[in-house]
Specification:
The protein is α/β, with parallel strands linked by helices and 364 residues long. The chain has three domains: 2-81 and 190-246 and 309-363, NAD(P)-binding Rossmann-like Domain (Rossmann fold, 3-Layer(aba) Sandwich); 93-170; 248-301, no CATH class. Helix content is 33%, strand content 21%. The protein is built from twelve helices and 17 strands. It has helices at residues 11-24, 65-71, 99-106, 112-122, 132-157, 166-170, 195-202, 216-219, 234-237, 283-286, 313-326, 346-359; strands at residues 2-7, 28-31, 43-45, 51-53, 61-62, 77-79, 84-88, 91-95, 187-191, 208-211, 225-230, 247-257, 267-269, 278-281, 293-301, 308-309, 332-334. The strands form four sheets. A seven-stranded mixed sheet has the order 8-7-13-14-15-12-16. Strands 10-2-1-11-17 form a five-stranded parallel sheet, with helices on one face. A hairpin with an 8-residue loop joins strand 13 (267-269) and strand 14. The chain is globular, with a radius of gyration of 22 Å. The two termini are 16 Å apart. The model has no long low-confidence stretch (mean pLDDT 97). One of its GO terms (molecular function) is UDP-galactopyranose mutase activity. Belongs to the UDP-galactopyranose/dTDP-fucopyranose mutase family. This is UDP-galactopyranose mutase.
Length: 364
């Protein structure tokens, strides 16, 4: 008999398992269909001994001291400020677009104010931004949109930017300074010994039991529990009764090279060439010293593990039906990217789980 059954051993599930075990002193069973903990943030040492991210680059960044303080119970940190380059016509340019990008691309020598004036000249003015194409062209104009955003977005989503909510591309900043960092958050850190080691500590309390290679359907009938915390796909929980929520998936092709580094930064985007969107080299991210390196090409796909909810109005309407059905269940709590059909960064998942614990679970 368990007080709580948690479905999914990613950030949301592990955070709630720890809080329930340590703060409430109650018994938790956490299950996952995969053969490992950590969800998509899982990392491991490959055959060459290189620490790699199994499901693509996971870069931790946050403005929340609360989240950093919480996770610091389980890991030490190393400072890492992420940089991304885009390969365009055989040359590399900083992304997000900034002063260095524009000056190199157009052979200019602008300062920050002149770049702001440049953006104002080339951008198109819209009364209302209705999609991602307008979100980008309304900031940087058509030429930069065509060079850096249009084809990359189609590869990622199999939808053109004008078919996607403005929120998709609006997340990408445009700068007038020389800041090459991809993120602007106050805290940009990586778990010193990797994510998996951190998750192991999160689940180390004796009140927490773990079952891998196990689905909710398998245990539903024979394991007794008082309250269910579900971090998986909400449409699957309801047996797709209103229809299937669409996701984009990813496929990774790993290669090990007999060289210390393959590329100058962790992520190089390929907006216009090839079928893959980017090449990731995790040694830049982890700080590992090794004579070899492992890279992975990232191919977006329609089928496979669900990664990205597809942000379109019709999908939000479908999710709302599931959300309404979930609201009627007193003994089930839904939390996480898949359960809430929302693109969360890792820190946002932790913050959401801590809030759910404080506002709901601790009151049970």
């Amino acid at each position: 008999m368990f007080d709580f059954l948690i479905v999914g051993a990613g950030f949301a599930g592990c955070t709630l398992a720890d809080c329930i075990a340590t703060k409430l002193g109650r018994k938790v069973l956490i299950i996952d269909t995969r053969n490992h903990i950590g969800g998509n943030a899982y990392d491991y040492y490959d055959n060459a001994g290189v620490l790699v991210h199994r499901y693509g680059a996971h870069i931790f960044h946050t403005n929340s001291k609360k989240v950093i303080d919480y996770l610091s119970r389980f890991t030490q940190w190393r400072v890492y400020q992420h940089e991304v380059l885009a390969k365009l016509d055989g040359d590399l340019y900083p992304i997000p677009i900034n002063l260095n990008t524009i000056n190199k691309l157009y052979g200019l020598n602008l300062n920050s104010q002149e770049l702001a004036d440049f953006y104002d000249r080339v951008r198109e003015k819209y009364d209302r931004i209705e999609n991602s194409e307008q979100a980008v062209i309304g900031k940087v104009g058509k030429d930069l949109y065509n060079k850096f955003f249009k084809n990359y977005t189609y590869k990622q989503w199999e939808l053109w930017p004008h078919e996607l909510d403005a929120s998709v591309c609006a997340r990408i900043p445009v700068r007038t300074n020389k800041d090459n960092r991809y993120f602007g958050d106050k805290y940009q850190l990586m778990p010193l010994h990797g994510y998996t080691k951190m998750f192991e500590k999160m689940l180390s309390h004796p009140n927490i039991k773990l079952m891998l290679n196990t689905s909710f359907e398998e245990v539903q009938g024979w394991i007794k529990f008082d309250h269910l915390i579900y971090t998986g796909q909400i449409d699957r929980f309801f047996d797709y009764q209103f229809g299937k929520l669409p996701y984009r998936s990813l496929r990774f092709e790993f290669e090990t090279h007999d060289t210390e580094y393959f590329q100058p930064v962790a992520v190089v985007n390929y907006p216009n060439d090839y079928d893959f969107t980017r090449i990731v080299e995790s040694k830049h991210i982890t700080g590992q010293k090794h004579s070899k390196t492992t890279i992975y090409h990232e191919y977006p796909e329609a089928e496979g593990d669900p990664y990205y909810p597809i942000p379109r109005p019709e999908n939000r309407e479908l999710f709302q039906k599931y959300k309404n059905a979930a609201a009627n269940l007193q003994t089930v709590t839904f939390v996480g990217r898949l359960a809430q059909y929302q693109y969360y960064n890792m820190d946002q998942v932790v913050a959401a789980a801590l809030t759910v614990f404080e506002d709901r679970i601790s009151q049970l």
